[in-house]
Design a protein that fits this description.
By secondary structure, this protein is of the alpha/beta class. Helices cover about 35% and strands about 15% of the residues. Helix 1 (about 15-25) crosses helix 3 and helix 1 (about 15-25) packs across helix 10 (about 235-245). The two termini are about 10 Å apart.
Length: about 250
């Protein structure tokens, strides 16, 4: 099966891209990366590879290894272009996140949102994690004139996580952890017809899910839509999306 994964030219979260990529390709599926212009070689947020602050807060070693494997794969250099996509050619859509400034290219793209709306209308599996949920929240359903997420249960990067990371690092990194003035959670909640359908999940600050332990991880599934909060959910998110994708084939 073919899964579409749009990314910006730079600054995406390496864990949220590389872990689902690895799980899907290991299962025999194809992941097609898409950038604004076809053929662009994208780059993850470099701080997450070296450690955000004095070597801490970065991606885990296994996620970094998966990312380096991804950068050597054919799909990394043969990216599709957002405007040229045929959504019907894909069986699933994955929207990763990231918070560094380069993410605004992807999070603010009207061209990408038009394609996301077309894919959503196909009623095929859609997964979004962290800031990636903003793409769906900002996309209008042509049939209703409301956000695609208006009537969905969802999660995203919780406000307490975004605020804590910003307050811990602002003295050195400025607004690195604040992509926009509005918190991600606030914007996603505002897109919902009933804000109570937002699910924050258990409170965590550093504990992450791993390849073998989902204790600290959290995802929300509503029909064929799956959402997760942050890189700490990436393994569970990837496995659940894989199950969702393969379930639609039966």
């Amino acid at each position: 099966m073919r899964v579409l994964m749009p990314v910006p030219d730079r600054d995406f979260d390496v864990t949220e891209v590389a872990v689902p990529w690895r799980l899907l390709t290991e299962a025999g599926h194809q992941v097609v990366l898409a950038t604004e212009r076809a053929g662009t070689r994208p780059a993850g947020d470099p701080r997450l590879l070296t450690g955000v602050l004095f070597g801490a807060l970065g991606a885990a070693a296994e996620a970094r290894r998966f990312y380096h494997q991804l950068t050597e794969s054919p799909e990394f250099t043969g990216t599709a272009g957002w405007a040229d996509l045929d959504p019907a050619a894909y069986d699933g859509l994955l929207l990763p996140g990231g918070h560094a400034p380069g993410m605004r290219q992807y999070l603010g793209s009207e061209a990408l949102r038009r394609q996301v709306a077309r894919f959503w209308a196909l009623d095929r599996p859609v997964g979004a994690i962290c800031h990636g949920v903003l793409v769906l929240a900002r996309t209008t359903d042509a049939a209703t004139g409301r956000s695609l997420l208006a009537d969905r249960r969802t999660t995203c990067l919780p406000k307490y996580m975004e605020r804590s990371a910003y307050l811990a690092t602002a003295w050195r990194l400025g607004r690195y952890y604040r992509t926009y003035l509005a918190y991600v959670e606030d914007e996603v909640r505002a897109a919902l017809a009933d804000p109570a359908r937002f699910e924050r999940g258990p409170r965590v600050l550093s504990a992450r899910g791993t390849a073998t332990d989902d204790t600290a991880a959290f995802v929300v599934q509503d029909g064929r839509y799956l959402s997760a909060r942050w890189p700490g959910d990436a393994y569970l998110f990837g496995r659940r999306f894989l199950a969702l994708l393969e379930g639609t084939a039966h």
